Amino acid sequence: MKREEVFNFSAGPSVLPTEVLEIAGRDILNYNGSGMSVMEMSHRSKVYLEIFESTKSKMKSVLSVPESHEVLFLQGGASLQFSMIPMNLMSELGKGKADYAVTGNFATVATKEAKKYGTINIAASSEDKNHTYIPAQSELKLSSDADYFYYCANNTIYGTEWQYIPETGSVPICCDMSSNILSKPVDVSKYGIIFAGAQKNMAPAGLTVVIIDKSLAGKEMPCTPLVMSYKTMIENDSMYNTPPCWNIYILGLVLDWLEKQGGVKGMEQIKTAKAALLYDYLDGSALFKACAEKGSRSDMNVTFRTGDEAKDEEFCKGATKLGLTNLKGHRKVGGMRASIYNAMPIEGVNKLVEFMKEFEVANRV
Ligand SMILES: *Cc1c(COP(=O)(O)O)cnc(C)c1O
How far apart, in whole angstroms, are the C-alpha atoms of residue 56 and residue 197? Predict the structure, then answer.
């Protein structure tokens, strides 16, 4: 199939803007007259440092990151943050305490990981309804003496998204924004730590962006590996060891593209329109049903099903034939999942809805 014939709804790694790949392709053998690829240059060279600094400053500017916070470009995926956070924010092994909201798979994994380091209080869980909703502020059981509060802003597998920033008093908030970062403006000052694996909405897999309130660094457990210490990474501008150079370069190109779409404000309008197309259709459909409850639905990962596994499979097969790929839901949920990250054009969503309508007519009971 040709790229133009495919709309890729993959949950991650996910579609990147074609324009970005074209630029990267054009420059792959010779970046900006340097005679080499970005993959081949020293991370301490002048030419690379320019890429690094400009990407970092674009990241700060697009999310209006305040002076109090630093942007880090790390490795280890979003998953490594599941242990970096407790190791850095609880100062003594076994003595720390944190509150976790368990609203899906990745928050569950993060909770398990954190339990290795300290006492974890489950502030809320949506497991009773198979993670189809987000708990309300009034349902959060918070501890005023917690080292931090943790939640996952967008649950990639279940298709739910927090519609509010939890109020935690003076307890710092740590948030996994892997699958909705850069999809809308965010008040960074309300967070202690925001982190995101790049492969959903930013760049290829292998880069994790961390935005951290610098006052939280430097209290890590003595056993914390140096590359897992926020303090080490802040002091060395993410270059204590070799950073994921190529991915940072691609992120810079994605941020240029994002700016042309109107930044995160522009992105918010676009993603709201794209998600509304799908949810409006789903809510009126006699065949398909949205999995997530109204008021908790994700604008990035839209989960839905027919209720009949064979039909779901038939739907995914038919969609793939039309170039609507990777719509199969995660095995934990079944059904379908349309991941409609920033780089998914609205045309892709329109084409998907058209096919859903056709499929519904053909399968009318
Ligand atoms: C994909 C994803 C992860 C896991 O990311 P890795 O980079 O594979 O470790 C964690 N949290 C969320 C919300 C995700 O979507």
Answer: 16
Q: Which two tokens stand for residue 162?
A: 């927090």
Q: Could you give the CA distance from residue 191 to residue 186 in angstroms, rounded to a whole number?
A: 10
Atom number, ligand 1, closest to the C-alpha of residue 208: 7
- Assess contact for 109 and 79: CB atoms under 8 A: yes
Global confidence as pTM = 0.98
Give 38 Cα–ligand 1 centroid separation in angstroms. Answer: 26
Torsion angle in degrees (nearest 10) through CA of 253, 233, 95, 215: -80
Q: Which residues pair with 173 in a beta bridge?
A: 149
- CA 199 / ligand 1 centre spacing (Å): 8
- What is the Cα–Cα distance from 338 to 293, expressed in whole angstroms? 16
Ligand 1 binding residues, C-beta < 6 A: 12, 77-79, 106, 152, 156, 176, 178-179, 197, 200
Q: Match 């998907």 to its residue by tokens.
A: 352
Strand order through the sheet with 173-176? 69-74, 208-213, 193-197, 173-176, 148-152, 96-102, 118-125
Task: Establish whether the linkage from the previous residue to 225 is cis, with ω within 30° of 0.
Answer: no
DSSP conformation class of 286: S
233-277 pLDDT, tens digit each:
999 999 999 999 999 999 999 999 999 999 999 999 999 999 999
What are the chain's domains? 21-259 (3.40.640.10), 263-362 (3.90.1150.10)
For 201, the token pair is 């909405």
User: Which tokens in the block code for residue 318?
Assistant: 């038919």
